[in-house]
Amino acid sequence: MNEQELIDSLTSLAPMLEEHAGESERLRKPVDSVMKAIEDTQAYRYFVPKKYGGFEFGLEGFMDIGVALGAADISTAWVVTFCMEHNWLIGLYNEQAQDHIFGQQPYLIAPGALAPRGKATKVDGGYRLSGHWEWGTGVMHADWVLVGALTDHDGPPEVCMYALPIADAKVVDTWQMSGMVGTGSNDIVVEDAFVPGYLRQNLTELRAGDSPGAQFHQSPTFRMPMLPVLGLTAAAPAVGCAKQTVTRFRARLQERAVYGTQDKQSERALAQSRLAHLTVRVQTVETNLKCIAKDVANWGESGEICPDVERAELRVRIGHVVRESRNIVRKVVEVSGAHAHNLSNPFGRALRDLETLSCHTVFDLDIATESYGRLLLGLPSNSPL
Predict the structure, then answer these.
(1) Which of 63, 129, 192, 350 has a CA 20 to 30 Å removed from the CA of 303?
(2) Beta bridge partners of 164
């Protein structure tokens, strides 16, 4: 299978995602049959290293998938793109870890709750891990989990990522949200689980494109900087949602009557102008998304380490893409009447989802711009990059 064939196979499922979007929201998780259809396309092999029978496809094509699925159902798209990308994260791990995971299965489906909400203590052969993590996107269909923990060493504790089978974790039903409801991103609890030493990876070693996996594979795919890849993974469905919302707005203008008149909203000059502005804005935001993806992929191709200031700039650019996607949806809903806020209306769901998604920590422009500004002034960053 080549890259375009997999992209086509996945994007052909968009009508199925759209059909089940309301059900996913009611269930508070992706619909099982939809997730099975996605898995059957071999989606989760997209970033698996070729050494292990994976496809090792490109970041720019990955954006096409995220946008197309996000247009259909942003919650399910969010879960799918995250779980696809988490196989890329495993590709950054050390060789023994990859041999262990990809040697026994072609891919994993795993949430990546990397905030250091756990604690790990060294023991013979590995670590004892305990913790409670929020934001477990993908956990409702997972076979592994990836979690972050502070790890005791001789010096200051290290922030590390641990990979362990889902059987060693407990899923806690906490996902009661106003938006992104269909992701089912419930909490993860691990109680004194043993994790072999090779399934621990210091997160600072993964940031800049010089991870153990980058050195092991010698491939541009695994030389890309981590945080921009994570940000793009989460941003692509937001762009798709904004794009589809503008498409729906165009159709709605030709149906909706102006209150107290016989006129269609599409006959009013202001509505026509709004549609023109929104169409260009959403085209621009998609172009920006793909431009950023190309820049991130170019860092992988270059073989050079991506400096702090470049990673900070990329984070700010990604944050602006998501903010603009949210603002486009806000504007559509603002001029679409009260019906847009009906729980079954796709406009209302898009607004709820984008308001929630845009609060993800990776899109926090206050933090991102402060870090970037500090680096531009020759000061050290005061947040992870």
Answers:
(1) 63
(2) 145
Q: Which domains does the chain have, with CATH numbers?
A: 3-102 (1.10.540.10), 112-202 (2.40.110.10), 224-376 (1.20.140.10)
In angstroms, rounded to a whole number, what is the distance separating the alpha carbons of residues 269 and 247?
Answer: 18
Q: Of 127, 172, 129, whose CA–CA distance to 147 is shortest?
A: 129
Q: What is the pLDDT of residues 44-72, one digit of tens each?
A: 999 999 999 999 999 999 999 999 999 99
The candidate with the shortest Cα–Cα distance to 104, out of 167, 165, 179, 32, is 165
- Report the C-alpha gap between 136 and 114 in whole angstroms: 10
pLDDT of residue 383: 86
Give per-residue pLDDT as tens, 79-131. Answer: 999 999 999 999 999 999 999 999 999 999 999 999 999 999 999 999 999 99
Q: Give me the amino acid identity at 239.
A: V
Write the CB contacts of 297 (distance below 8 Å, at least 6 apart in sequence).
Answer: 58, 59, 60, 220, 224
- Mean pLDDT across the chain, nearest whole number? 95
Assess contact for 311 and 208: CB atoms under 8 A: yes
Using CA atoms of 71, 146, 113, 25 in order, give the dihedral in degrees to the nearest 10: 40
Distance CA 66, CA 80 (A): 8
How far apart (Å, rounded) are the C-alpha atoms in residues 194 and 162?
Answer: 10
**Contact status, residue 5 vs residue 41, Cβ threshold 8 Å:** no
Q: Taking the CA atoms of 370, 371, 375 and 376 in sequence, report the sign of the dihedral they define.
A: negative
CA distance 350 to 74: 8
CA distances in angstroms from 306 to 88, 207, 272, 378, listed in the order given: 17, 9, 44, 17
The C-alpha torsion from 58 through 316 and 350 to 187, rounded to 10°, is 80
Nearest to 233 by CA among 289, 183, 303: 289
The answer to whether the beta carbons of residues 351 and 297 sit under 8 Å apart is: no
Q: Which residues pair with 287 in a beta bridge?
A: none
pLDDT less than 70: residues of the chain: 259-260
Furthest CA-CA distance within the chain: 78
Residues with Cβ within 8 Å of 251's Cβ and at least 6 positions away in sequence, in order, are none
* pTM for this model (two decimals): 0.96
CA Rg value for the chain: 21
What is the length of the chain? 385
